[in-house]
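Item description
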Amino acid sequence: QVQLVESGGGLVQAGGSLRLSCSASGRTFNNRLIGWFRQAPGKERELVAAIASSGSRKYYADSVKGRFTISRDSANNAAYLQMNNLQPGDTAVYYCAATNAYYTGDGTRSSMYPYWGQGTQVTVSS
């Protein structure tokens, strides 16, 4: 099992920044693809960004390209989502998720992630 805990959410004005953190415990975090998802009220959960176990491959949703940056710190079993130039449309609960070990897919579907954190709320005011 992998336990994930997100932190760093909050209330920010449009144009502001937040850095979300995902801390992992339990089985190793390092050979898993990590994804950040978000879910706004009344909307489906969507993938925001994902990073391969090596950190060399990254995926971003079109809506956040150029504004969000995903990273990971394997030594500390952590992953991060730096969010800049936040907009009201970014308001959602943000979730960190992990795949099974040695997963080789592209990680764009939530069904590929069996491990999830509890979520952290991000609210962007206009």
In short: The two ends are 40 Å apart (CA to CA). DSSP finds no helices and eleven strands in the chain. The mean pLDDT is 94. The CA atoms of residues 72 and 79 lie 4 Å apart.
